[in-house]
């Protein structure tokens, strides 16, 4: 093969198809995703549409559902927040560990000393304040940062507090479920039963429309 020739491995092609199958097998019409996943949902729509064109109306064309914060940048300020990049906040972490992680967050690189005014618009800590802190707190962060009235460490401590407040009800629910493993098992079993029934019906329909015999 020519060295300049581009190769496309199966993972690149197969993964979005697998994702599509995971969606349309259950005839889902809405998928909650982050912004980085929107192209995959578009591909899922294309695949569903193509199948429908060939074999008749079968699958809804799934739509992406974004939240108000569709993309969370990682603590390194470089890429999306991701466990594999180790720039993430672990939802199961304790408030203390979360605070420690937040203190490592990347800030405005030009603010090398406390008396240099910061630029919230390039600071990931500020972006996270916009997601997790009250609007009053966000305004204060902006004005105190741009006038060098606050230091980055204090700013991150305040952010850690907001994130911990946000996560508190989730941590409480997690604790509750951890204390009732049998109940969690029941929910999973019941959900699995319902999902398998829908999937089996869809597979039947697909085999029939494609004229395939069941083995
Ligand atoms: S004070 Fe806050 S918003 Fe400003 S640069 Fe530091 S961490 Fe970022």
Explain what you see.
It is a single chain. With 215 residues, the chain is mainly alpha-helical. The protein contains seven helices and two strands; from the N terminus they run αβαβααααα. It has helices at residues 10-24, 38-55, 95-102, 124-132, 135-146, 152-178, 181-210, and strands spanning 30-32, 63-65. Strands 1-2 form a two-stranded parallel ribbon. The two termini are 40 Å apart. The mean pLDDT is 94. Residues 107-108, 111, 118, 120, 123, 125-126, 141, 145, 150, 152, 155-156 line the site of iron/sulfur cluster. Belongs to the class-I aminoacyl-tRNA synthetase family.
Helical residue percent? Answer: 55-70%
Unreliable stretches, pLDDT < 50, 5 or more residues?
none
Amino- and carboxy-terminal Cα gap: 40 Å
Oligomeric state of this protein: single chain
GO molecular function: ATP binding; tryptophan-tRNA ligase activity
Catalytic activity: tRNA(Trp) + L-tryptophan + ATP = L-tryptophyl-tRNA(Trp) + AMP + diphosphate + H(+)
Protein name: tryptophan--tRNA ligase
EC number: 6.1.1.2
